[in-house]
Design a protein that fits this description.
Elements lengths: L5 H4 L12 H13 L5 E5 L6 H13 L19 H8 L5 E5 L6 H10 L10 E6 L6 H12 L5 E7 L7 H4 L3 E4 L5 H14 L3 E2 L3 H9 L3 H14 L2 E2 L2 E4 L1 H8 L4 H12 L3 H13 L4 H21 L10 H11 L4 H18 L5 H15 L5 H18 L10 H11 L7 H4 L11 H8 L15 H11 L30 H14 L3 H8 L2 E5 L2 E6 L3 H7 L2 H13 L5 E6 L20 H7 L1 H10 L14
Parallel strand pairs: 1-4, 1-5, 2-3, 3-4, 6-8, 10-11
Antiparallel strand pairs: 7-8, 9-10
Helix pairs in contact: 3-4, 5-6, 8-9, 9-10, 9-11, 10-11, 12-13, 12-15, 13-17, 14-15, 14-16, 16-17, 18-19, 18-24, 19-22, 23-24, 23-26
């Protein structure tokens, strides 16, 4: 007898033998028990997962000649030994026709099918058509079949198997019961491979069968086909084929994942030369750049899933050893890093399909992974820009008044948010710290809430250190205030009833109250304004136009200002007026000169800082000294 491949030899003959499709087999067995047989079924899903197999088992169950409840057939499963079951299994049953819709897709073939459906079955209970690759049927042929599917004879059952159900017209799908098949789980494929290896008397290494199951990629038939090929190329040991992991990798043209684990370690350490040398060894050994990129993409995906759900998550359909390896690689990076790595490698893999020099593009993709760790996170940059825009509004210099980089702006924000940092005039130009809106989420992901242990803390860049210190510091309630306010007046500075108004003290109290109530933009703008006594009222000229003034210092902000002034004991009114064309009002600069030998003095004398001030027409409000004081 000719050799029969494993996929055919061990094809399931009962619903209970089908792996990974319990939701389908359970529904069909219940329908058989209740006698609720539909006239049309659509079985859709991934290749090699049992669509046509279940269609044949259902056909055997419908036409089985052994009565249910007898010793030969205790339940709705087909007996497998009667003439009908034997003929259907062999593919020569008269009343069960399996048609390849890819070649019989025209309207003429469907007309013949429709004509044959009028006649009753020759012997069995049902006349059944199994249409494989049903999405290949033309629209005209489907339209010819439409009426038969809508009102078929009671002895006709149609079963359509397809990998692309969306190509079947909706009018057909609405007349059939649609079963969506799942990809077979890794554990189910591995259990089936072990069972077959035992029955075939094949000696296999512990790591060999998991490699075959993973190569199946959710398809039982693919895994069995690769196993067939591996057995044919396996060496004999004691008269039995022996499957070895290294032999299977060589057969499939893959490399062990330990190679990619080493690549991830070198990427984490920033060792560009080590990454390129490792890749050079793989390519010189004859590995395809496209195959390496595909395998590395899968490894990055597994590392990302381990980072998200932990080592034992169901998202990882790989062996225990590979789970541990993916988890170790995930420890080296944050979730954001792994996401960016996966995006870069997916793009690199796409480029390799139509580029001439595949090696160069793969090398470029891996070098990009090393450099990605040196990039400033965009949320940190946006957070710094947001604070600078607020400061620019207060100074009247527009968007051109910005720090040279995000790290410098973070230092400015951190210094301005430190209680008692500098004089009042210095703190007037500082802005309350605005940590990144993603900081808390990043801390959660890096701190080990993903379910796997954390490695030793990595060194932070100066910008990250300052930003984190600014986020953890407790800033004063209002912009530009470095001194605590009196608790007796809920933050307002009390004035003696008969004393003349102290504009500086009123300014500080009003800005503090606005800051506590969430009007930080108005507090910053008012603090930078020109305060003057105009008769019995206080006039504040702001560096904005009339429209912006109405949006920034709204009715609620004005009410807070009046309430604060009443709490201070002053009866004077306060009025906010725009400046002409939004120009910055003249305000006396009270910033004291830097102390000789201080960090601020060193920063002012630095040629790079001076060039930056000249280029961006900027000024330095505060300087944070990050040097170790010990």
């Amino acid at each position: 007898m000719a050799y029969q491949v494993l996929a055919r030899k061990y094809r399931p003959q009962r619903f209970a033998d089908v792996a990974g499709q319990e939701h389908v087999t359970r529904t069909l067995l219940n329908a058989l028990e209740q006698g609720r047989i539909a006239h049309g079924y659509i079985f859709s899903g991934h290749r090699g997962i049992g669509k046509t197999t279940i269609a044949r088992i259902l056909a055997m169950a419908l036409n089985c000649r052994t009565a249910v409840g007898t010793p030969g057939r205790p339940d709705q499963e087909p007996c497998g030994v009667c003439d009908s079951c034997t003929e259907i299994r062999a593919g020569n049953a008269v009343d069960v026709l399996e048609i390849d819709a890819a070649t019989n897709r025209g309207i003429d073939e469907v007309r013949e099918l429709r004509e044959a459906a009028r006649y009753r079955p020759a012997r069995d209970r049902y006349k059944i058509w199994i249409l494989d690759e049903a999405h290949q049927i033309t629209d005209a042929a489907f339209n010819a079949l439409l009426k038969t599917l809508e009102e078929p004879p009671d002895h006709v059952v149609f079963m359509m198997a397809t990998t692309q159900p969306e190509d079947i017209p909706q009018t057909i799908r609405s007349r059939c019961q649609h079963f969506s098949f799942h990809a077979v789980k890794f554990d189910d494929i591995l259990a089936q491979l072990r069972s077959i290896a035992e029955q075939e008397q094949i000696d296999a290494e512990e790591a060999a069968l998991p490699l075959l199951a993973e190569a199946g990629d959710g398809s039982m038939r693919d895994a069995l086909s690769i196993m067939d090929q591996a057995i044919a190329s396996a060496p004999l040991a004691g008269g039995k084929p022996r499957l070895e992991a290294e032999q299977i990798r060589e057969l499939m043209g893959s490399v062990p994942n330990t190679v990619f684990e080493r690549l991830m370690e070198q990427i984490s350490a920033g060792q560009t030369a080590g990454v390129i040398e490792e890749l050079n060894g793989l390519l010189n050994a004859g590995n395809s750049p496209s195959a390496l990129a595909r395998q590395f993409v899968r490894y990055l995906r597994n590392a990302l899933m381990a980072r998200i759900g932990g080592e034992n998550t169901d998202l990882l359909q790989i062996s225990t050893d590979e789970r541990a390896r993916a988890a170790r690689s995930a420890l080296l990076f944050s979730e954001e890093d792994l996401t960016r790595f996966l995006q870069v490698m997916l793009r690199t893999f796409d480029d390799l399909n139509y580029r001439q020099e595949q090696r160069f593009h793969l090398e470029l993709g891996l070098v990009k992974l090393v450099h990605l760790q040196r990039l400033l996170p965009v949320e940190e940059l946006l957070s710094g820009m947001q604070s600078l825009e607020h400061r620019a509004q207060g100074s009247g210099q527009g968007t051109g008044h910005r720090a040279p980089n995000a790290a410098q702006s973070t230092e400015h924000r951190a210094q301005g948010s430190t209680p008692g940092a500098g004089t009042r005039a210095q703190s007037a130009g500082a802005v309350a710290p605005r940590p990144s809106p993603f900081e808390a989420d990043r801390e959660r992901k890096v701190s080990g809430e993903s379910g796997i242990a954390e490695p030793a803390a990595r060194a932070l860049s100066p910008a990250e250190s300052v930003g984190r210190a600014a986020a953890e510091a407790k800033p004063p309630a209002a912009v530009g205030l470095a001194e605590p306010l009196s608790e007796a007046t809920d933050g307002a500075l009390a004035l003696a009833p008969d004393a003349p108004p102290d504009l500086d003290r009123i300014r500080e109290a009003v800005c503090a109250a606005l800051g506590r109530e969430g009007h930080e933009t108005a507090a910053n703008l008012i603090h930078q304004g020109a305060w003057a006594q105009q008769g019995t009222a206080i006039q504040v000229q702001l560096a904005v136009g009339k429209t912006m003034l109405a949006l920034t210092v709204n009715a609620e902000a004005e009410a807070i200002c009046r309430k604060t002034m009443r709490a201070m004991g002053t009866t004077q009114k306060i009025a906010f007026v725009p400046s002409e064309n939004g120009a910055k009002p003249a305000v006396k600069d009270t910033t004291p000169p830097p102390i000789a030998g201080s960090a601020q003095s060193a920063a002012m004398e630095n040629p790079l800082v001076q060039k930056t001030k000249e280029l961006f027409k900027a000024d330095i409000r505060s300087v944070l000294d990050l040097r170790d004081k010990n």
